[in-house]
Design brief:
- The protein is mainly beta.
- The protein has one helix at 105-108, and strands at 2-7, 10-13, 18-26, 33-39, 46-52, 58-60, 68-73, 78-83, 92-99, 116-117, 121-126.
- The strands form two sheets. Strands 2, 4, 5, 6, 9, 10 and 11 form a seven-stranded mixed sheet that branches. The protein has a four-stranded antiparallel sheet with strand order 1-3-8-7, with no helix packed on it.
- A hairpin with a 5-residue loop joins strand 5 (46-52) and strand 6 (58-60).
- The longest helix has 4 residues, at 105-108.
- The protein starts with a strand and ends with a strand.
Length: 127
């Protein structure tokens, strides 16, 4: 079983930056892709970014493209999400998720494609 623990959330002013971390443990050898999702109050959980565990393929939602970078450190079993130029609409609980099978780009956008989830970390952007 893969366990995921997010950290790095907090309160930041609009225009600022945050780096979220997702530490994976357990069956990390089985991970194929790690993704970040977020959920704002009253809204559905939405895809933010994803990265393959062993390759270099990355995927971003349009809402964060150009101001976010997803990266990984396999030696530390950790994936990072750097978000710059934060906006109040970025306020949400950010979740890390993992899947142990290859999927199409379309499938990676869906929460149902991920079998493992962290507990989430709150990001609040003040205006």
């Amino acid at each position: 079983q893969v366990q995921l623990v997010e950290s790095g959330g907090g309160l930041v002013q609009a225009g600022g930056s945050l780096r979220l971390s997702c530490a994976a443990s357990g069956g990390t050898f089985s991970i194929y892709t790690l993704g970040w999702f977020r959920q704002a109050p009253g809204k559905e959980r939405e895809f933010v970014a994803a990265i393959t565990w062993r390759g270099s393929t990355t995927l971003y939602a349009d809402s964060v493209k150009g101001r976010s970078t997803i990266s990984r450190d396999n030696a530390k079993n950790t994936v990072y999400l750097q978000v710059n130029s934060l906006k109040p609409e970025d306020t949400a609980v950010y979740y890390c998720a993992a899947t142990n099978r290859p999927d199409s780009v379309l499938m990676l956008l869906r929460t149902t494609s991920y079998a493992y989830w962290g507990q989430g970390t709150q990001v609040t952007v003040s205006s």
